[in-house]
Each structure stands twice: as structure tokens, then as C-alpha cells.
Amino acid sequence: xxxxxxxxxxxxxxxxxxxxxxxxxxxxxxxxxxxxxxxxxxxxxxxxxxxxxxxxxxxxxxxxxxxxxxxxxxxxxxxxxxxxxxxxxxxxxxxxx
Length: 97
Fold this sequence. Notes:
By secondary structure, the chain is α+β, with helices and mostly antiparallel strands. It has helices at about 10-20, 50-55, 65-70, 70-95; strands at about 25-35, 35-50. It has two domains: about 1-55, no CATH class; about 60-95, no CATH class. The protein is flat and about 70 Å long.
């Protein structure tokens, strides 16, 4: 009796490791037009890479994303303060909102 081993798992792991190590970019545009008038354009840009590889490429959007850094409360407070200042300035110069 002989045992058989599946190599599909290790093959998939090797492919995934290569993709994450080198990175892969998928780009595409989708346009919706009606009678020659463009109504909607969707641009899709997808980068698949490890965090280390993304940092090497200069991609670090997660560091500035308020939802991921937990800074949404700070940004909302900042926004409210700015809106108050704008309203005060508009009142001072007599501009109706």
C-alpha cells in the first residue's frame, strides 16, 4: 500500500508567495455611454502585494486612512471647527450662507 500526497496546496502557496513578493497590478476602465455621451466611468486599479513590497513601492495609503487609523473622531471635530470658523467669517463680512 502506497501513500499519495497532494502537491496542489504547496503549488498554490508558491504562486501566492511569488505574487506577494513581486506584486501584481490589475488596471481597467469601464465606461457607460448612451448615444455617444459618456454617463459613467469607473476606473479600477488593484495592486496585490505584501505590506513590505507595497512599502518598497511607496504605497502606504493605510497610514493616512482615517477609518484604519482610528482618527475619524479627530477629523470630524476638525471639520466642525472649520465649519464654525467659516460661518463666523461669513457673518463678519455679511455673506448669506
